[in-house]
Amino acid sequence: MFDRYEGGERAVLVHVDFAEETNKEDLSELSLLVSSAGVNAVEVITTARNAPLAKYFVGSGKAEEIALAVKNANADVVIFNHALSPSQERNLEALCKCRVLDRTGLILDIFAQRARTHEGKLQVELAQLRHLSTRLIRGWTHLERQKGGIGLRGPGETQLETDRRLLRGRIKTILKRLEKVAKQREQGRRARKRAEVPTLSLVGYTNAGKSTLFNQLTQAHVYAADQLFATLDPTLRKIELKDVGPAILADTVGFIRHLPHDLVAAFKATLQETQEADLLLHVVDYSAQNYLETMDEVNEVLDEIDADEIPQLIICNKIDRLEGIEPRIDYDDEGMPIRVWVSAQLGQGMALLSQALTERLSQSIVNYSLKIPPAFSRLRGVLFGLNCIASEHYNDDGDWMVDVRMPAADWNRLEKHLETGISSFVVKH
C-alpha cells in the first residue's frame, strides 16, 4: 500500500538539545530504544535549538549535514529522538532519500516486534494505524491522485480518500475486537472482586526490572531482558501471601517519557489492570542516575490513566549495582511499609517484599476465638481448608475451642454462606 524506501538496519540518529524542559529527550534513552529495535547506529548527530523549525524540525544547514551523513554512511534510515510532524518527515525523506522515523514511530516499531498475544498485536496495529492515518499522503506521491481509465471509474474518490476509508474501516474492526477483549477482562476482574481477591499491579519505567521481579514472586517464566519494552502483553499470576491468602499479580507494559497518546489509547484494555488494582508496586531502577525523573514520568502516565489515587509501594530494584545497600523495608510514621530495597536479578529481598505486601494487605485480617458445638463439626473441615487455624483444643463439654486468623473477605464469605452465621460462634471476651 505504501511506496517507501527499502529499510535496512543502518541508522543515523538525530538528537536536538532544547532549552525548554517540555521538549527535552534523553540521548542515552534513544540509544537503548535503537538497540532494542535491532538497529545499528552508524552515526549520531546532535544540535541545540530553542525551538523546532517548521520545515525540517532542525535548521536547513543541519538537515543538509544529516543528508550528507546518510550518503557517506550508506544509511537506510534516519531516526529522530523527537516527535515529527507528517510534513517534517516528508521534507526530510525527500532531502535524505531514505526512510525517516521519529521517536513515536520507533517505539511503535519495537512494540510491533514484541507483540506476542492476539490482543497485543491488535493494540499495536491500532496504534500504528492511528499514527499512519496522518501520514497517508506521502505514500502516494508517485501516483495520479485521481483514479481513472477502464475498470477504474467509480465513486470518484481520490486514491487518498480510498486509503483513508480503508483505514477507518480497519480501525473500526480492531476497536470492536478490543472491546470484546476488554469485556472478557472486565468479567475476570468482576469475578476476582466477588471472590475479594486483591490485585497487585507492577508499574514502572521501561527496563526497571518488572518482569524479573514478577518471575521471582510467581516462579513464572515470562520473557525478561535488559532492553526497553521487553514486556508488552499483560500477564496475570496467582501468588500466596502469608495471612492474606491468594492475590493476583499483574505484569504490565513499561512506561516511557512522552509516551505517545496513540499508545496510551490503544493499550487502554491492558492499562485497565493498573486502574483496577488494589496496590501498585512501583518498580524503580535505583542504579539509574535519573531514577527520580523516571518516577515522575511513571506518575504522570498514572495520572493520565486515572490511576494516581491507587496506593503505591515503591520497590527500589537493582541494589546489587549499588555499594553498601542491603535489602530492607522502609516504614512511614504510622508503621506502614512504603519502600522495599531488593535485587530482583539476584533474588535478594524477596522475603522482605512478601512481608511488606502482607503488612500492606493484611489490614483486612481478622482474629477471633470460636466455640463450635459438636453438632457443627463439619465447620472444622471448612476452617482447615482455609488454613486459618492458629490454635485449637476441646473443652469438657466436647465443644471445639479454636482461634482463627483470616482475611476479612473469607470471614464475610463464611458469614454469608453458612446457614448459621460464623459470628454466632464467637467467644465474647
Quick rundown:
The chain has 429 residues and is of the alpha/beta class. The protein has helices spanning 27-36, 60-73, 86-96, 103-114, 118-133, 159-194, 210-218, 261-266, 268-275, 291-304, 350-361, 378-385, 408-417, and strands at 10-18, 40-49, 77-80, 99-101, 199-204, 235-241, 245-251, 279-285, 312-317, 328-331, 337-341, 365-372, 389-394, 400-407.
Can you put this structure into words, describing what you see?
The chain has 429 residues and is of the alpha/beta class. It has three domains: 10-101, 3-Layer(aba) Sandwich (Rossmann fold), CATH 3.40.50.11060; 196-363, 3-Layer(aba) Sandwich (Rossmann fold); 365-425, Alpha-Beta Plaits, CATH 3.30.70.240. 39% of the residues lie in helices and 21% in strands. It contains 13 helices and 14 strands. The strands form three sheets. Strands 6-7-5-8-9-11-10 form a seven-stranded mixed β-sheet, sandwiched between helices. Strands 2-1-3-4 form a four-stranded parallel β-sheet, with helices on both faces. A three-stranded antiparallel β-sheet has the order 12-14-13. A hairpin with a 5-residue loop joins strand 13 (389-394) and strand 14. Helix 1 runs parallel beside helix 4. The chain starts with 9 loop residues before the first strand and ends in a 12-residue tail after the last helix.
Q: Mean of the pLDDT scores?
A: 78
Query: At the first level of CATH, what is the class of the largest domain?
Result: Alpha Beta
User: Biggest sheet, open or closed, and with what strands and sense?
Assistant: 7 strands, mixed
Radius of gyration: 28 Å
Structural class: alpha/beta
Q: Which residues sit in consecutive blocks of at least 5 with pLDDT less than 50?
A: 1-7, 138-150
In CATH terms, what is the fold-level topology of the largest domain? Rossmann fold
Assembly context of the chains: single chain
The fraction of residues in strands falls at 15-25%
Helix content: 25-40%
What separation lies between the terminal Cα atoms? 78 Å
**Number of discrete helical segments:** 13
In CATH, the homologous superfamily of the largest domain goes by the name P-loop containing nucleotide triphosphate hydrolases
- Which of globular, elongated, flat, extended, rod-shaped describes the shape? elongated
Count of strand segments: 14
CATH-scheme architecture of the largest domain: 3-Layer(aba) Sandwich
Strand order of the largest sheet: 6-7-5-8-9-11-10
Q: What is the H/E order?
A: EHEHEHEHHHEHEEHHEHEEEHEHEEH
* Number of domains as seen in the coordinates: 3
